[in-house]
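Fill in residues.
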């Protein structure tokens, strides 16, 4: 997955997953669901955070060592398929610092191909404990080729019950975000790179969903 693999639709899609070292096993399901997409992303960036402070990990060195082992394990399992990096922004807040790191990594990967508002790169975010259906990215590309962003539906599976949620301008209300999640979260955000850069990833997601 690199620039040479850009899909026939003319768009670049960069998938971003944030995780903690303690969730190395969990994130495999998310990664595998990305690699099984009918429309593969042009890049998959996995950002690993430092473990939070705890009595078991008293020093920064110990915390970095756990993150390094997580990265090494992912490299062993997936080889060169992934773009792996540490969170170099706000630590221990994977949903903001790691996503910010992933977004900026996507921007760096664009290099001279980044053309401001005309940029044809989209960012798709996936939580490490979620997964995408195989047609997720293709469906997003089909809808968004002439637009800037989309929030597709969610399937929540508690093990006993599966529910489908679809956010829309008619169902979304500000008060719902202040007390819950009305069907908008990291795993179903698909947005053009310049838009999310202008908005700021943390602010963008905070405005969409406070869980």
């Amino acid at each position: 997955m690199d620039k040479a693999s850009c899909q026939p639709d003319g768009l670049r899609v960069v998938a971003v997953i944030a995780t903690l070292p303690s969730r190395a096993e969990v994130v495999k399901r998310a990664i595998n669901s990305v690699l099984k997409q009918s429309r593969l992303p042009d890049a998959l960036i996995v950002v690993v955070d430092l473990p939070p402070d705890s009595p078991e990990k008293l020093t920064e060195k110990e915390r970095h060592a756990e993150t390094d082992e997580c990265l090494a394990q992912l490299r062993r399992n997936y080889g060169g398929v992934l773009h792996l990096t540490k969170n170099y922004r706000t630590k221990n807040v994977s949903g903001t610092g790691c996503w910010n790191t992933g977004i900026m990594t996507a921007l760096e990967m664009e290099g001279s191909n980044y053309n401001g508002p005309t940029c044809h790169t989209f960012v798709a975010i996936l939580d490490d404990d979620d997964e995408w259906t195989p047609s997720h990215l293709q469906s997003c590309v089909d809808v968004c080729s002439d637009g800037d962003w989309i929030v597709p539906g969610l399937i929540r599976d508690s093990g006993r019950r599966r529910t489908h949620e679809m956010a829309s301008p008619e169902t979304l209300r500000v008060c719902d975000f202040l007390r819950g999640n009305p069907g908008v979260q990291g795993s179903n955000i698909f947005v053009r790179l310049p838009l999310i850069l202008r908005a700021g990833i943390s602010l963008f997601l905070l405005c969409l969903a406070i869980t």
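The two ends are 32 Å apart (CA to CA).
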